[in-house]
Amino acid sequence: MPLSPDQIAEIDAARATPRQTLRAVSEGMEAHLYRAQEVLDHGFIRVIDYMGDDAAIVQAARVSYGAGTKHVSNDEGLIRYLMRHWHSTPFEMCEIKLHVKLPVFVARQWIRHRTANVNEYSARYSILDREFYIPAPDQLAAQSTVNNQGRGAVLQGEEAARVLEILKRDAGQAFDSYESMLSQEGQQGLARELARMNLPMNTYTQWYWKTDLHNLFHFLRLRADAHAQYEIRVYAEAIAACVKDWVPLAFAAFEDYRMGGVTLSAKAIDCVKRMLNGEKVTQETSGMSKGEWREFQVVLG
Q: So where does this one cross the membrane (predicted)?
């Protein structure tokens, strides 16, 4: 069960005692507040708090840019203008705080986004739960033969069973050793801060993660992308669903310009112009490297 009984009771109590407020409220986000969305086999994300909405972005932009945006006649148009022209500070006026439960190896990938405030569950003070991430069979894949940091074909039959058994066995044995080393029940043992060092990377941890919308969009652009590792991508997708309800106008602009858009180099734009003029452009005449040309061809479809 991703949530402990104490956590469930805490959430139920918080939702049972709503309070009146004068601050900006997003009805879409209110529906997500405190509710846990399960991710992977034991993980979850849940919104603890948020600040601002689409109107907060517009309000901040009109203070910042004043007369420069008077030609934009509505909030949606202004937000799209800001996204299109890479104005970041208005989006920083919105913030979100999440409670996330995730495997340690996902947390170490996630923490590379250094633009958030993070407070992680401490295994120096508390004893970790016996919970590990074990991939579903369709996520047991071999190393990609074309991508050094990606997955290839899904393992089948006996090979899949062999790998799955190793994952389960090693995680169980490591946690047995962790528990046997702890100073408890009259045994001197090891301090918690030392006993934890043998635990595997698929052990679950938890943290509070607070960031602003601009940096959250950057996180989502990278981690909700189809090329991101599956285990972090599913967390990003769960967060994206909340953000879509929280700031629908900003999220629509983000999907259009960031997730669905592309950035072309000066050489690529020159090639497009030459193609539109009827010129046959090749990799050799484009001025691009083979890798750039290959990516350009993908963009052109």
A: none
Residues marked active site are found at 223
Residue 259 contacts residue 88 (beta carbons within 8 Å):
no
Q: How far apart are CA 150 and CA 145, in angstroms?
A: 9
Residue 144, marked binder: no
Q: Residue 183 is encoded by which pair of tokens? A: 């100073």
The C-alpha atoms of residue 69 and residue 252 are separated, in whole angstroms, by 20
**By three-state DSSP, how is residue 44 classified?**
strand
194 CB contacts (<8 Å, ≥6 apart)? Answer: 181
Mean pLDDT by 10 residues, the chain (301 residues): 79 82 90 93 96 93 65 80 95 97 97 95 91 94 83 91 95 95 86 93 97 98 95 98 97 96 94 96 95 93 86
Give the list of residues 6+ apart from residue 126 with CB closer than 8 angstroms, or none: 192
258 is in an annotated binding site: no
Q: Is 89 labelled as part of a ligand binding site? A: yes
Helices (H), the chain: 5-16, 27-30, 54-65, 75-84, 104-110, 157-181, 192-195, 213-223, 230-246, 248-254, 266-276, 283-286, 290-300
